[in-house]
Amino acid sequence: MNQISRLPLVCGTHVLADFHGAKNLFDAEPATDVFRRAAEVAGATVLDVSMHDFGARAGFTGVATLAESHISVHTWPEHGYAAIDIFMCGTCEPMVALDHLRRFFRPRREDVNRIERGIMADIAVPG
User: Fold this and answer.
1) Long-range contacts at 75-80 (CB < 8 A, ≥ 24 apart)
2) Would you say the pTM of this structure is higher than 0.85?
3) In which band, very low, low, confident or very high, does the pLDDT at 53 lie, cut at 50, 70 and 90?
4) How would residue 119 be classed by pLDDT, with cut points 50, 70 and 90?
5) What is the mean predicted confidence (pLDDT) over 91-120?
6) CB atoms near residue 37 (< 10 Å)
7) Are 6 and 125 in contact (CB under 8 A)?
8) Which secondary-structure segment (H or E) carries 112?
9) What confidence score (pLDDT) does residue 46 get?
10) How does DSSP classify residue 23?
11) Beta-ladder partners of 124
12) Residues with catalytic annotation?
């Protein structure tokens, strides 16, 4: 007997992380490789990584553009704070990317929100 399962469709997972008491908030150059590697270990395809250093130890902002969406950061070194945004679809694992970024920024405290995006009505899937 052919059985039908009903599965919700989720387009992607969005992870928002606030890193407080973080390190490595001044220099965008090493962050470029860290963001590329974070995407790769999460199973994503990196299309581009672009970082902008504000100079004078004023922090940086950047984005890794992925075939599966993006990873972005904005840092406030004067507050020891980094805002991280990871959105991935498909079989990618955004929490794995976050773990990689956590090891680089080494926050003393963090607030993490995980949101399933694009939840569609249940769809019938042959079982």
Assistant:
1) 75/22, 75/25, 75/26, 76/25, 77/25, 77/26, 80/20, 80/21, 80/22, 80/25, 80/108
2) yes
3) very high
4) confident
5) 96
6) 16
7) yes
8) strand 109-117
9) 98
10) S
11) 6
12) 69, 74, 89
SS3 string, 48-102, reads EEEEEECCCCCCEEEEEEECCEEEEEEEEHHHCEEEEEEEEECCCCHHHHHHHHH
Tokens 């997972």 identify what position? 13
DSSP-assigned letter for residue 127: -
Q: Rounded distance, CA 49 to CA 39, Å?
A: 10
- Distance, CA of 27 to CA of 66 (rounded, Å): 22
124 pLDDT more than 60: no
Q: Cβ distance 35 to 52 under 8 Å? A: no
3-class DSSP state for residue 122? coil
Model confidence over 38-47: pLDDT tens digits?
Answer: 999 999 999 9
